[in-house]
Specification:
The protein is an alpha+beta fold and 138 residues long. The protein has one domain (3-132): Transthyretin/hydroxyisourate hydrolase domain (Immunoglobulin-like, Sandwich). It is 17% helix and 37% strand. The chain is built from two helices and ten strands; from the N terminus they run αββββββαββββ. The protein has helices at 3-8, 76-92, and strands at residues 11-18, 23-24, 29-35, 43-49, 55-56, 68-74, 108-114, 120-122, 125-128, 131-134. Strands 1, 2, 5, 8, 9 and 10 form a six-stranded mixed beta sheet that branches. The longest helix is centred in the middle third of the chain and has 17 residues, at 76-92. The protein starts with a helix and ends with a strand.
């Protein structure tokens, strides 16, 4: 890659931390979509799945002209499996508190953000069964 190309590359990375366990969230599928301009059409540009460390390091560089990015995290299967595990553990321990909801309250999480050419955007998702937050990392 030439230095001219490198100056214009805009990239995105992400990771997910399950704040209810303090552990990375492995195996969550996500898609990366892009658009040019506020009213532009969303185009799917890449897809990945979180690794054992909860990270996606293989998302493609963004096309020139991209102004907005959307990350769509498919959290339902992950959260449902964690709820089922918690239910099983509560069943084994008579005094353990029951999980109030065995479904996924947030079956998906969509994060949309603006980008500037030549920047790298690391956007972590902090996830738990009944809430989430995101921020621009480094």
């Amino acid at each position: 890659m030439s230095s001219e190309t490198a100056r214009h590359d805009t990239s995105v990375s992400t990771h997910i931390l399950d704040t209810s366990t303090g552990r990375p969230a492995e195996g969550i599928a996500l898609t990366l979509s892009v658009r040019s301009g506020r009213g532009g059409t969303w185009d799917e540009h890449g897809a990945s799945k979180t690794d054992a460390d909860g990270r996606c390091k293989d998302l493609p560089a963004l096309p020139q002209g991209t102004t907005h990015v959307r990350l769509d995290f498919e959290t339902e299967a992950y959260l449902a499996s964690k709820a089922a595990t918690a239910d099983q553990q509560a069943e084994e321990q008579q005094d353990a508190p029951r999980v109030r909801d065995s479904g996924a309250f947030f079956p998906e999480v969509a994060i949309t953000f603006a980008v500037q050419p030549g920047e790298h955007y690391h956007v972590p998702l902090l996830l738990n069964p009944f809430g989430y937050s995101v921020y621009r990392g480094s």
